[in-house]
Structure prediction request, 242 residues.
Amino acid sequence: MTALRSLAYQIYLYTVSAIMTLGALPLLVMPRRFTASAIGLWSRLQLWGAANITGVTYEIRGQENLPEGPCLIASKHQSMWDTIFWAVATKDPAIVLKKELTYVPLYGWYALKAGMISIDRGSGPSAIRKLVRQGRAALAQGRPIMIFPEGTRMAPGASADYKPGAAALYTQLNVPCIPVALNSGMFWARRALKREPGTIIVDILPPIPPGLKRREFMAQLEAVIEPATARLEAEALAKKST
Prediction:
């Protein structure tokens, strides 16, 4: 049954995506907010489909830690679900994406039009300068910045070195950073079509105030996200075993 529901969701995903990406093409010549709204609608439809077709729902903890307006959100990244979620979990976020994704036809066009932030990891210091410049512009528009500090999806139980982008945004833009732990990979595998029914937990942790040095910030960020993620993974395992 889980396999059939997962397959049904994939059909739903691609059908909705095809209809919306083609139908929303005229928005690309309209003001940015229209494309941002279309991305929000697509994301809500995907979360609805995940919940009602595969049984993958979600719970948000620590919502009170997420301020309205400009801030830096640094989230654990375990599956595609995370990107869908963050497109609607905050108002008009500027999500940091790999530059390669902006080359994907239609997807990349919408991402750029909506004001997402692209980063070219191979460009060294110039990439960081561009990242900060784009981040500053997003904050000036009153938008939060969302970044996955490991730079890629990691399977449950795994972690990668935190990349310098999050620290550059934090230190140079002087904004609070909101660390986020989650366990989406326990239900929505990063490289498989199977979706396990259950409740993804997103734990929004207390903000890290601005003003820390780069090294201190990076250590604190990892020290709060990784143990919290491990606790959520253990909680999911315990529920699955009952």
Notes: The chain has a mean pLDDT of 93. The first strand starts at residue 56 and ends at 61. The radius of gyration is 18 Å.
